[in-house]
Write a structure and sequence with these properties.
This protein has about 375 residues and is mostly helical. It has helices spanning about 10-30, 45-65, 75-95, 110, 130-150, 155-175, 200-225, 230-245, 250-280, 290-300, 305-325, 330-345, 350-360; strands at about 190, 195, 195-200, 280. The strands form two sheets. The protein has a two-stranded antiparallel ribbon. A two-stranded antiparallel sheet has the order 2-3. The radius of gyration is 22 Å and the shape is globular.
Amino acid sequence: MTPFASVLGPRGWAAFLGIGLVLLVGVPILNLLPASSPFHIPNYLVPLLGKYACYAILALAMDLVWGYAGILSLGHGAFFALGGYCMGMYLMRQIGTRGVYGHPVLPDFMVFLNWKELPWYWHGFDWFIFAAFMALAVPALLAFVFGWFAFRSRVTGVYLSIITQALTFALLLAFFRNDMGFGGNNGLTDFKDILGFEMQAPATRRGLYVASILALGLSFLACRVIVTSRLGKVLLAVRDAESRVRFLGYSVTNAKLFAFTVSAILAGLAGALYVPQVGIINPSEFSPANSIEIAIWVAVGGRGTLVGAILGAGLVNWFKTWLTGAAPEIWLFFLGALFILVTLAMPAGVIGLAKQLRRKRPPAAAGAPAE
């Protein structure tokens, strides 16, 4: 078996490909069925599922640093939002003269605020390739610089968590300002098309959903390659006994910095795919509460498992969608109670609970016919 094939194993690859085909092909096909069909998936549900896929990528990013490297980052919402803003800037540049003020160069909010010219940092976002690159590069650069100072200074534990939360809160305050050139508290919205395709067209929504599922699959494989490699073993050792790893001569700083930067790239990718499907990006995405919620997804699913991170993101956000529609006033209470329940009763998350129940299953009697 080749090293890459051993990443999942035969059964793992079969499950991965099976689930991938169902999500990648099944949902678009069911969406194309007539509305009268009982198997029809309505148009509004396609971007919702695509949004869940983006959240799953974000959960993978968190699990890579928290579940495997022991870095509890409470600022990953910042990397997600920065990736989203980069894509939002591209989408705003595609509006052109179709905006409210019909200005061919400046976005509507700049015309409203009486800006005379496009800021220098908006140049280049006319091109999708440039915007896509920046959606990954900007979070990566921020994570690298932040991590270089933090990890070299050996900031760990709750102190690092507080600093990461302070980082995202500082960005929240900065992006709320109108003179930052990112739309202030309203953010960027009213997008028209992407790559020449109308944003609200069902075919475009299906395409964005497929892109999100593909990105989720590739992100999962990338994380799986990292955690099953020698570097992954070093990260686990850093998580469990950092001082011993440093004493053995390994570079703890470099290992953490690599994981943190890759995690930020994944978060930026999730943000870039998220914005076209929800149609807006504003400073609320920098909210520290959002970053805490990401940690809850991973905790619910089971940190240090990758599959658990995806499962946790899907379950929690499905409950959020349902509960904010049925009883929006109790959602935050439910989320807090869920985190307490998981911490006290299921420290290994849903995946850990499933493994525990499987171990407790009584073995089949000798000679009993297999079911």
